[in-house]
Description:
The complex is a heterodimer of chains A (341) and B (848).
Chain A: H1 2-18, H2 22-33, H3 38-44, H4 53-90, H5 109-123, E1 127-128, E2 134-136, H6 137-140, E3 166-168, H7 174-183, E4 188-197, E5 209-219, H8 224-239, E6 245-252, E7 255-264, E8 281-290, H9 292-297, E9 306-313, H10 314-322, H11 335-338
Parallel strand pairs in A: 1-4
Antiparallel strand pairs in A: 2-3, 4-5, 5-9, 6-7, 7-8, 8-9
Chain B: E1 2-4, H1 5-11, H2 18-27, E2 31-38, E3 52-63, E4 66-75, E5 81-86, E6 105-109, E7 114-116, E8 125-127, E9 131-133, E10 136-138, E11 141-142, H3 145-148, H4 170-174, E12 176-182, H5 193-204, E13 227-230, E14 238-245, H6 254-262, H7 270-282, E15 287-290, H8 291-300, E16 307-312, E17 318-320, E18 326-328, E19 334-338, E20 341-345, E21 349-350, E22 363-369, H9 372-381, H10 387-394, H11 399-416, E23 419-420, E24 425-427, E25 436-439, H12 441-448, H13 454-463, E26 467-471, E27 474-478, H14 489-504, H15 525-539, E28 543-544, E29 550-551, H16 553-556, E30 584-585, H17 590-600, E31 606-614, E32 629-637, H18 663-676, E33 682-686, E34 692-702, E35 706-714, H19 716-719, E36 731-736, H20 737-742, E37 759-768, H21 773-784, E38 788-797, E39 806-815, H22 824-842, E40 845-846
Parallel strand pairs in B: 13-16, 28-31
Antiparallel strand pairs in B: 1-12, 2-12, 3-4, 3-6, 4-5, 6-11, 7-8, 9-10, 14-22, 14-23, 14-24, 15-22, 16-19, 17-18, 19-20, 20-21, 25-27, 26-27, 29-30, 31-32, 32-36, 33-34, 34-35, 35-36, 37-39, 37-40, 38-39
The complex binds zinc ion.
Amino acid sequence: MLEQLEQLRLEALEKLAAIADGEALDGWEKRFIGRKGAVTEMTRRVGELSKDERPEFGRRVNEIKQALSAAYEARAATVQSAEMERRLASGALDVSLPGRPKLLGRLHPSTQILRDIFRIWGDMGFQVYRSPDVETDENNFQLLNIPPDHPARDMWATFYTTREGIILRTHTSPGQIRAMRQYCPEPIRVILPGMCYRYEQVTARHETQFYQVEGLAVGNQITMSDLKGTLSSFTRRLFGPERETRFRPSYFPFTEPSAEMDVECILCEGKGCAVCKQTGWVEILGCGMVHPVVLQNGGYDPAKYTGFAFGMGSERIAMLKYGINDIRYFWSNDLRFLEQF
Amino acid sequence: MLVPLSWLKECVDVPFSVTELADRMTLAGLEVEAVQYIGVPGADLVWDPAHFVVARIVEVRHHPAADRLVLAVVDYGTGQLETLVTGAPNLFPYLGQDLGRVDLKSPMVLEGATIYDGHQPGFVKTTLRGRPVRGIMNRHMLCSEKELGISDEHEGILLLETHTAPGTPLQDVLGDAVLDVSLTPNLARCQSILGVAREVAAMTGQSLRCPPSEVLMQGLPASEAVQVEIWDLSLCPRFTATLIRNVTIGPSPQWMQRRLRLVGMRPISNIVDVTNYVMMERGQPLHAFDYDLLLDRARRSGDALPTIVVRAAQPGEGMTSLDGVARLFNPFDILITDSGGPIGIAGVMGGADTEVHDGTQNVLLEAANFDMFHIRRTSQAHRLPSEASVRFGRGIHPAEALRAARRAAELMRTLAGGTVARGTVDVYPGQSEPVVATINPDQVERSLGIRLDAIQIIDLLQALQFECRLVDGVVHATVPDHRVDIGVGLVGTADLAEEIARLYGYQHIPETEMGDRLPPLRANVALEQEERTRDLLVAAGLQEIISTRLTTPESEARILPPGSAPDDRPYLTLANPISQDKTTMRHTLLETMMEAVASNLRHRPYVGLFEIGSVYLSSEEGSLPEEPQRLVLGMAGQREPSGWLGGSGRAGRVLPDEGTLGFFDLKGIIEALTDGWRIRGVRYEPVLNPSFHPGRAARISQTDRGYLGIAGEVHPAVASRFGMPPGVPLLAAELDLDAVLDAIPTRSAVRPVPLFPSVYRDIALVVADDLPAATVQQLIAQTGGQLLADIRLFDLYRGEQLPAGKKSLAYALTFQASDRTLTDEEVNKLRDKIVRRLEREVGAQLRA
Ligand SMILES: [Zn+2]
């Protein structure tokens, strides 16, 4: 019987070594070490042995059962990990296939550039102040030191309405008057954004409507050198720390001295190209020291207060920043344009 | 304004290159927009001095073999004569003449040079090659203007009126650079060569050479030939009349014609050209009348002498102007009149009846000053922008009138052979004291942020011809009498500060940080909420658009089915629309939204858009319109973008019923927005609106705030007006953004994360088909109370298994207590209570 037992052990181990899958492993377990397996069967046959032989046989059977169980566990672990590997191998994906598309919303490029501009000015203490699109001639021109029939009116091709004295604002400057009258005599730092309108044929460079962002600072010791420093900081923040600026004299009836600010051309790094008309400079905003008459109209005593103001077209800034060559894209509502931002 | 360098150099030395001059002018506020080069380096065709020279024609002979050609014998400075073959018709009159005393000159181009081909249209370059013409070798050529690139004139060769020696490089005679200077309205004083020269002199320290003002006057005084009256000095502060007798009308000299062409004017005759030339030179417009025509008119009225009266137009007055147009005058027009009526629109255009003509012998020259506001208004009303009206309309100092009159009279005398009558008639009664503006070093520092002493300030201002005095540390600057843009008081101080900054150089003003006190910080809640709203919608997958705000009532009527009554609320209408499709300010954003969705759907399977912006609602006459903010949403197309993972539809080919977006997709976005803002109590109720599909539109409202907006599937008859494919729903919503933002709760309590497990129960209820689901859900919520944490509708069924007119609503209910684990018993009791209430109040039956 011990010999039979030994043979059984050898046979079981031999068979186990050949097993490679879970099903065969289950079969082996049933056949050799399960409740009705061969080893259990051998235990039942203990009655065939003499009393002396029984302890030795019993001990041996247990030993073999434990050894086979241990071998089974070890084999099972190997088989399982092999099976796992096979399963994982068969589950491989072509990771180069496109992912499931998600609908992505985006902000209009004008909104994006406005947010950039608001954020930068916000850091310098300038807060957004909004005013209406439809304005009085008085706010849009007269209180800004532009009387009726003044030659400076040629600078703004204006849309008039059928109502006397009511126009579409040509710039956000009437917001200067509104802000000053609201906040006087406190110091002011505001950003005045909004849609403006000009009587101009729509071309790649001109739209009848455009966003303007204007800024106004009023206080007791604001100078033109502050204006230069503040606007240069803004430009470097928006276009990059190396960006040079240039101020040259200009004319706006509501500022004096007045200036245009040019920024070093972004496309050619100031070397000269078609966009900058070979000058290396691109005009991005008009600015100046608030005219004493305007300060007075806003309620501030020009003998005690000074201020600066500036205005820029945000589409024009976006066009420069992103290299857009046609302003008509902005209000075209064409996803093929808008999705690029 | 066009400024030829050669002309500018007559008034001021320019000791540097054209490019540097242009840069310096730009940095001083006279922006040079472009430079046009003629023959000199920078030009498309450069006249290299070795090949382009001045030649003197010494003899013109018959060509032995051709009638239509002549031989020109020329001296071009080499010491040897050269014979050229030419067909130039303007040489034929000189055939066989003795040219010894005629200084006949022409540009000559030598073999090998590149010129423009005179025979080809446009400007095509070609290289000059010598070849025999009818048996005579022709190596070089006399040129037309076109061949040199001066103009497109190719009728004959260019004959030069010049005293320069043969062989002189052509560049030195005709070469030039013309600066195109963009002048802001305040630079009225620079609208002339002299005006620009004055600025160049100030910025470079060169001295200015003014045109001569001496004039030889002879004979009977002008005051015995004409009288002048000004009725309203506020319209016309000064009027001068100068009489030039016995002129001979003819062409003006070539140098004058050339300069007029370079500044964009057409030469007409010596007298008219002189008036234009002096206007370009000094900036003062002039007008020449035929004196004898004025005299005739006076005599016809029974007067011995003409009396010129400057006055405002009277009702019904009219005149035919120089351009042949019969004009009726406005009360604001200033007229030059005589006893026979108007003879000129002051500062704008002369009259046809009294103009200078070929037979004119005596010229009455007007040099006057008019009110700039009136001139500007008149030139706009009559649509007559002229070189004169632009100059008057920006303001000219009255002192200029007499200087210009004297200069022009002398030129007329020398160029048209006349005699200038003694004593210009000069009516200038209001001659006022010169303007004196003041500034001190503190004021300069306060404005510019730079410290200059009084002497530095005076130096800068004197360069611009201000006469300065220093009184108690304050600079008193007398404004020179060629400018009218400097005020007094604080305005004058600001005006001087600008001039100081300009001459000091903006580039030399340092850049500093603002040291001023910060204003009080204020939140801009409306803007912050608007931006957050944009973020919520972007997070929901929508693309932002921005539309044009100008529209027409007809465009906006497209949001209604054809034949509907249009929007009868008054529009804010433009008085001067630029095009027929932009006449009014919009009332709605739906029209542009529908258009945007439909047009993008032609190349996209899915389109989801939003826009935030104002509409303009007219209130009573005279006041500004309301500008409430709207939020519009628009969607259409496939819910699932197509791809290898599923979904259907391709760009431009959206098919109906293939998972197309519907009402509930739109509603889901609006709910995402209101949930994102924690707005509670939002209701959707059926509404009939002509733009929307009946039964598929909802009025959206909120318990506290009331009306928020409307959302729905656009009426198919409307959708098709925008070119939507039939059967594909177009979804749109227009919300009153101000109301939505107003409904945002000021604070929303944060609930603790539950510590105890939730208990779930599903209930399916059979109710009447027309019972709104919201009613059922509201009852469930009310009854479930605090312990009912969530209600979700997970099935809606109508069909065979139910009686007609019924539907089944299945809800997943989540129960949750914050302080304990709920028992089954508790939850079941609550569920039964809910069911009983639904049975009682809406006749619901629990579905097995
Ligand atoms: Zn460039």
